[in-house]
Each structure stands twice: as C-alpha cells, then as structure tokens.
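Troubleshooting log. The previous structure file for this entry was overwritten by mistake, so regenerating from the original sequence record. Sequence copied from the archived sheet and checked twice against the printout by T.R.
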Amino acid sequence: MERKKILLVRMDRIGDLVLTLPVAGHSALQNFDVLWLVNQGTEFVLESTTHPAVFKTLKKSFSISQFFQFVRWLKSERLDVSIVFHAPWWVGAALRIAGVPIRVGRKSQWHSFLFFNCGIRQSRKSGERHETEFNLELVDSIFGKSKKDVEPLPLVPQSLNWRWSQILESDEFFVVHPGMGGSALNWSHKRWIELIELLSEKSKVVLTGTESDSEWVDPIAMRFKDRKSVINLKGQANPKELLLLLSKSKAVIAPSTGVLHLSASLGVPTVGIFSKVPAERATRWGARGPRVFNLE
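Regenerated output below.
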C-alpha cells in the first residue's frame, strides 16, 4: 500500500524553523512520507537534523514564473496533506490550485479563509504560549493529539575543514552573538561589553554575526580590538561552519535570534536574552533544549 505524503511549510527565519521541527515527531506523521518546504537559505537546518529530512527550498519573493513552476511541482508530488505554519500568501493559493486535498493553516488574514480548507484561529499576541505549541496545535487540529511526547529535534554538526579550525582545537571558549534581526528588543551595547569583559578575563570569547549584525557587532569588536582573548568572526562562518563552532563552545549567549535556537538544539549550554514585552518573552520564543537558560 502506497504511503500518504504530507508537506510541512515554514518559510521564514532560522529560529522559526528550528521551533517548528518538533512537529515531525507527532505520532500521526509516522504514517506519512514527510516533505518540508522552507525558505531558501535555511535548508542547512534540515540537513543537520539527526533524522534525514526531505525538503524543497523556495524564495519568498513572488514571480509569475516561479508561482506556476511551484504549482507544477506540487501536482507532481501528489500530496495528500499540507500544513502551512508560515508562508507568503501565494503559497496557499498554489496549494489550492494544485488540488492538494487537505490544506491546513492558521485562519487569520482573508486569504487564509480562501485557500485553507482546514485550520484554526490562533491569537499569538499575548505571548502566553510557546511557538512550538502553536505549531503542534495546527497538526493536532487535523490529526488529534500526538500519542507520544513531542520533543525538540536535535541537530548534529557536520565535520568540516575550516580555516578557523584552530579555534575549535583551542582551550575552552564562549560564543557571544549580540546581533539580531530587530524583531524584539535587545540588550544595550554596554551590557554586552560588560558580559564580554567578564568572560574574557579567563576564557576566549568568539564574537559571531553576519554583515546584517554589524550595528551590534562592530562597536563591541572595536572595544576589544586589542584584546587577544576576544576573536571577531563576524561574516567569517557559513551556516554549517557556524553550527560546528557552536557545538564546540563552552556556552553560547545570544538574544532572541536563530543562533540561540541552533545552539539549544545542538545540546550546548545556552543562555538566551529576552525582552519582557509580552509578544517577545521567553514564554513565546524561548530556546528549548537540554541545557538552556532563558533570561528576561
């Protein structure tokens, strides 16, 4: 008997995807071939899961040609169910045009009522529940509660030859990732500097970030430019190299951003810095893992 196929859609940021991964452990999904659709650039997360994940990447930007290519791909996959946790509006339209029989999504904006034939309303502004719980609720809405506990899905770094490999082989080091995308309040530069002052007295501290984090990383890196125990690796690691770096660290300290959730999923001691604004609190976006402390 041919197994049924389900598409799980999460097309936003790294941390959001990490907090959605646990839904794959829902007992009902064990009877399906699971296929993920994710935002281009986040696929390294699925490549690093402990259990192989089948996925397709897609750009969030809309174009007519990409839209109809996507519809053709959906038809070729002969999907039985789709669950959209987060995606641009046109993904829902494509799922309907492609004739996916069961289309689950969050009922909120007008187009969700038009394109999804299953789903529920969810009020997320209060921050009283965790993102993973909201995601599981969408799965529960069509399959019922999981018959087994659903746990965070661990990540495992790949072995790599990296030009900064001497850091990985050195004595214990902390990773401090002060940057974030601006979706929540962050610590001040002063507080990050105070933390690094303390940590760098006895251990190496590695600063990480992408070019988009320059607003946060550059002033801090300038403050410690003459301190050998503080190493600035902003823009020096690709996603897979970053995973390896995080996995070798003594601990990772970061605000509400993807690096925080990657670290937690690697099982590394992880400290998350969160705002007390209701929709930004740790109760809503906190890192989850065996060695996590979320600070507000």
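DSSP finds twelve helices and twelve strands in the chain. Archived copy saved in two places this time.
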